[in-house]
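Progress against Task 2.4 (sequence-to-structure conversion) is shown through the following example record, which the project officer requested during the mid-term review.
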Amino acid sequence: MLHLGGWDFHCCIQPFTGRRAYSQMKESLFEALKQASAAQTILAMNRYFGDQSYSLRDLFAEERHKIMRLLSQETLTRLDQLYSQVYRDNYGVLVAFHRDELDVPQELQVAAEIAISHRATVALQALDRESSDFPPTNPQLCLSYLSELEAVAAEADHLRCQLKLPQIQQTLERMILRSLWHLLHSFNPETAEADIQWIERLLTLSERLHLHLAMDRAQEVYFKGLHRQVLPQLAQQSMPPHECPAPIAKPEWSLIQIRQFLKLGQRLAIDVQSWLGQV
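Structure tokens generated for the chain above:
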């Protein structure tokens, strides 16, 4: 397979006929490569493989798209660096335009939006990676990345940037679902309040980034946990002591934690008002 640059590939294939023939063919092809001539290399390939050749178009769509993304990544990385440099060099100019309510030059506004979107994507990828274990191995680093994202959201609002963040939206949805699942299935009374606050901060971040998250899966997990774990303990703690059954084996939620969990339900658009009145 010969990569001619960009999307251009020249690929040939034939059955393996033996180690000696393979060695001779390889030596001949690399000798053609040393001439720094794509034409000579293709001619040498045709001598061994015939005129039939293949390109990206001959791959299945999934594999072709994967290679296309890999090929474009280096170019996109260079563009991100270029836009970030333009944004840094002209930050004061952008602020002045917005301060005086003037129309910002489109080129500068686009540079700001791309640079800030890239910053948000990099920070969220790092946060997702660091918080994938539960509990996270370095909670302070997770909080640092989250604070960075909150600062990015404030900066985007300040400069009135219209961010396009489909990957960030999907990552936040996954992180919220994962954090909620761990809260309920690995419940720890000592960290429960901090765990709930963490989910609330993720929800607040999505609002500040003006993302409309799909919360259906998180709502399902919350609803099951509410009825299977939290409400039975709320009912038990609301009973008079002489009517209370024997203590359950699982770690108990305190009334403060139950109230905090119910307030989280409100953030997830679940009607929990009737139970909130009991705590």
